[in-house]
Amino acid sequence: MYVVKIGGSLITHKDEYCSPNLEEIRRYAKVVKKIWEDIKGNLIIVLGGGSYGNGVPIRYNIKNSDQPWDPLDLQMMTIKMFEWISLVCRIFREEGIPCYPFQASSYCTTKDGDLSEYNIAAIKECLKLNILPITSGDLTFDKDKIFVIYSSDNIPEVFARSFRVKRVVTLTDVDGIYTTNQMKDIIKLVNKDNYREILNLAGDSNKQDVTGGMKNKLRALIRIAALGTECVICSGKDPMNLIPAIYSQTPPGTFISAWECEGSSC
Ligand SMILES: Nc1ncnc2c1ncn2[C@@H]1O[C@H](COP(=O)(O)OP(=O)(O)OP(=O)(O)O)[C@@H](O)[C@H]1O
Ligand SMILES: C=C(C)CCOP(=O)(O)O
C-alpha cells in the first residue's frame, strides 16, 4: 500500500482563494495512469489543501474555535474541500482512472488537534474494487477544541495506522527539507537519531497557510515513521517525480526511514 500526498502548492494557486491549477491536476492524472495497472488497489491519494484548505478558514473565521465563529459557517470548510476533491476526481475520471472522493470529517475525529477516532471501512471496500480513494484534510470535530482545521499532511497517519503501508510520499514545491534559509542543500536522511535536530530546521510555509508548512509535514511523517512506515518528501513540480518517489530504493528528496518506537522514546 502506498499513500501519496500531492501538495496544495503544486495543484492550486496557493495564495489565491479556491483556485485550482487544472493543468497540473491533469498532468498528475496522466502520470497515475502510467502506473495504474501496477498500483491499482494499493494507492490512496491525499490532496493538499492549497488555496481551498488555507483560504476558507480565513474567509469564514473558522481557523480557531477559540476565536468568535458562526455555526452557520462551520460547514464551509467541508463544503469547499468536497468541491476540491470532487473536481480532482472528475479530472482523473476524464483521464480513465476510476476514483472516489472521501471527505475526512466523516471518517475521523481529533482530540486536542491529534488523531482520535477513525473508521475507514468504506475506503477499504473501495480499494478492494480497484478504485482509487481520493481524500484530503478537512475540518474535524474535536473532543477538546470543538473543531480544528486538520491538515492534509496529517491524513496519511490514518492509513498507516490501519494498513501495512510501505511508503508515504509527500510531494511539494521544494526539493526536500533544506538545511538553511538559502534553500540550497537538502537533508537526504531523517532517522530516529537526527529527527529532533531536523525538526528545528523545518519552518512555516512562505505562502498562505494555516497548518504549519514544512514543520507540520515533518512532524506528521515522524509519527508515521515511528509506526514502521518509511516516508519521502520531494519536489512534485515535475509530476513524473511521483514514480521514483514511490518505487525507488534511492528516492529523490528527503527520505525518512522507518523505525519502531521503544516505550515512550518517540
Ligand atoms: N527547512 C525547510 N525546507 C524546505 N521548505 C521549508 C523549510 N522550512 C519551511 N519551508 C517551507 O515549506 C513549504 C512547503 O510547505 P507547504 O505546506 O507550503 O506546501 P504543500 O504541502 O505543498 O502545500 P499544502 O499544505 O497546501 O498541501 C516550502 O515552500 C517552504 O516555504
Ligand atoms: C486541508 C485543510 C482543511 C487545511 C489545510 O491543510 P494543508 O494545506 O493541506 O496543510
From TrEMBL:
Coiled coil: none
Binding site for substrate: G49, G50, S152
One GO process term, biological-process aspect: terpenoid biosynthetic process
Source organism superkingdom: Bacteria
Residues the UniProt record annotates as site (Transition state stabilizer): K14
Keyword set, alphabetical order: ATP-binding, Isoprene biosynthesis, Kinase, Nucleotide-binding, Transferase
Any one Gene Ontology molecular-function term assigned to this protein's record: kinase activity
Class of the enzyme per the UniProt entry, highest EC level: transferase
Keyword Kinase: yes
Reaction equations catalysed: isopentenyl phosphate + ATP = isopentenyl diphosphate + ADP
CDD domains attached to this UniProt entry: AAK_FomA-like
Domain Aspartate/glutamate/uridylate kinase: 2-235
Gene3D superfamilies the UniProt entry points to: Acetylglutamate kinase-like
Positions of ATP binding: K5, I6, G7, G8, S9, D173, G213, K217
GO CC aspect terms: cytosol
Presence of keyword Acetylation: no
Known EC number: 2.7.4.26
Membership in a protein family: Belongs to the isopentenyl phosphate kinase family.
PANTHER family listed in its UniProt record: GLUTAMATE 5-KINASE, ISOPENTENYL PHOSPHATE KINASE
The protein's name in its UniProt record: Isopentenyl phosphate kinase
